[in-house]
Write a structure and sequence with these properties.
By secondary structure, the protein is an alpha+beta fold. 50% of the residues lie in helices and 21% in strands. Strands 3-2-1-4 form a 4-stranded mixed sheet, covered by helices on one side. α1 crosses α2.
């Protein structure tokens, strides 16, 4: 029983830390919405999109911890990253350069 309590306490601390980070992001970006996605053994990815179009992500050790964190933060959570939610993301020259570089084998000089 003590092992279970120790694991639960660790999970609670991790969820609390993620909640603090989510709240910080939301405050900086005028609010936020999220989507939680399972990423395999690494856990779950929390994609955050701010009201200003800014975005970021966090990694949680499990889907359960990620879901607990976004619930505690009190933000809207989407089941998928598509449609109106994805359209809220603002991309700039940096993102377009990085995406183009990945598609064509890296940045070109010249």
């Amino acid at each position: 029983m003590a092992d279970t309590q120790q694991v639960d306490a660790k999970a609670e601390r991790r969820a609390a830390r993620l909640t603090k980070q989510i709240n910080g992001f939301a405050k900086e970006h005028g609010g936020a919405e999220a989507q939680v996605a399972y990423i395999g053994e690494r856990g779950a990815r929390i994609v955050l999109v701010g009201e200003d179009g800014g975005w970021g992500d966090l990694v949680a050790p499990s889907v359960e911890i990620a879901e607990k964190a976004v619930e505690k933060a009190g933000i809207t959570v989407h089941e998928s990253f598509d449609g109106e939610f994805a359209a809220k993301v603002t991309t700039g020259p940096y993102e377009w350069t990085r995406m183009a570089g990945i598609q064509v084998g890296g940045p070109k000089n010249g």
